[in-house]
Amino acid sequence: MKTIPELQELIKSEIDQITYPSQPSNLYEPISYILSLGGKRMRPLLVLLGHQLVNGQLKNAIKPALAVEVFHNFTLMHDDIMDEAPLRRGMSTVHEKWNRTVAILSGDTMLVKAYDLLLELDPKILPEALRLFNRTAVEVCEGQQIDMDFEEKNIVLVEEYINMIRLKTAVLLGFSLEFGALMAGMPESERKVLYDLGVKMGIGFQLMDDLLDVYADQSKFGKQVGGDIISNKKTFLLIKALEQAEGDSKKELENWLDKEAFDPKEKVTAVTTIYNQLGIKEQTTDLMNHYFDEAFNLLDQLDADVEGKQILKNFAMQLMKREQ
Amino acid sequence: MKTIPELQELIKSEIDQITYPSQPSNLYEPISYILSLGGKRMRPLLVLLGHQLVNGQLKNAIKPALAVEVFHNFTLMHDDIMDEAPLRRGMSTVHEKWNRTVAILSGDTMLVKAYDLLLELDPKILPEALRLFNRTAVEVCEGQQIDMDFEEKNIVLVEEYINMIRLKTAVLLGFSLEFGALMAGMPESERKVLYDLGVKMGIGFQLMDDLLDVYADQSKFGKQVGGDIISNKKTFLLIKALEQAEGDSKKELENWLDKEAFDPKEKVTAVTTIYNQLGIKEQTTDLMNHYFDEAFNLLDQLDADVEGKQILKNFAMQLMKREQ
Is this structure's pTM higher than 0.80? Predict the structure, then answer.
């Protein structure tokens, strides 16, 4: 059984070993580039943690685990085009460093390459793994489209938001855990529990992301603190604030949302003050804890290796306490 | 054994039966839209023609055949963004009718949906089919990137051009035939012949496309005749003309390529005149015939059903004589 740092090291060394053809360079260099930017590598880690719940022999699980990382980076490359994001992990995004055409095509190629890595699977589980992967991949696209649609909507309900982050973020974490367990031979009934656990954890993870965007310590945070406020992104925090603000508070919040020209720092301070008055941070933390608690309950129920369960629990605890 | 019109009818009716969820509508409506625009449906037809070379029982081959059509339309949706094309088959492109974000995401979803259709395959051949499909899909992306790279190059060699159209267009036709035959149980050695045949046919098909863009009868042609000339697209015709033009002809051709403001009709007439002086039409026809001849030779050698071979040959002949 491997610890989290050991698994992370294993994933890093495997990713470093992936090579692509040299030509056409505008197709393959962006793939190596985005994969080299690092990040938490949370998804392949979850695949291996899911696998360890049944069986510590990870040898055959590593390449398929990378499929999930390659897939995730494909979604980042395309999402960055849609969001017109200049930076990813502190570095230029692919469409900025190359151009939009390159980012579309390299992303497309990565999606195919993810399927290539799945071909490393035992043929006996290939159809089931693909079925689960495809369902998840489509849901991730649905989540991103719903998120894009939110930009045009004035009112987003909390349940609509939770459904969006479930699709855009959480189902891939659920899939990752289930996929690892599937490779290790976990029965379907237990796999479903594990999937649900991952989805709950994923919703909690995204709520933490929303929180950090406003309340992170800038010296430890990889992105600009307040970025979501500046861009009027409909996060859980904003949705709750719009729901609860009244009188002058409400007017002030709506004014900030409508303003086209403003000092970013001033807007972040003003909106954060409204969040603080309404206790939005506490409400978000409560809901996040609720989802993590549900995940921990499912983990307790799960019939799986005790040590493996403890390692997964430790990882989830890290996610709840992360600062970036 | 089914005739070409019967197969086309079968494909049309199967495509009409594909349904997608209603929400998010900005994700799924564009998929139904692009698939409803029609087109030749050449690729699923080739899958079924490849299948008929071994076995006339097409029942299980039809859904997987549609995977190739869905994949092809995914590439069209993304290529249209890159080319900033306003029209596809006489109708608005997806990024025009909706927006770029929608076209990226719907395209991504279609690629996953293509894999979903492949899951209808007999699990025994699934790994091999996916291996071939993935290789082809990546090559199609490579071809598109090389084509994009050509826009920045002053000189493109004929062999570079042929390699580009091999990747961008021809390998998918080769795959389609081989895939159909794989489903019907054709041995690998024969399948390789069939693949090569499809690739040759595909190169011939693309050369015909280049020719039609300049020499088609506008009343029968779905696009604007001369479109490639107007946009300086590096087709076989332009590459040969740049290679062979001398003196005043060369200067005139280069002037037209450099001009930013011009009367489109005047440019098309002038460049076509240069092509005519150089005998470019005849040279393109010769090379196209050469590739089709090679395809027919491979078909003659192929150990397969005689009637199936004749139907495939008839289809290839139609491609050589098409007017749109």
Answer: yes
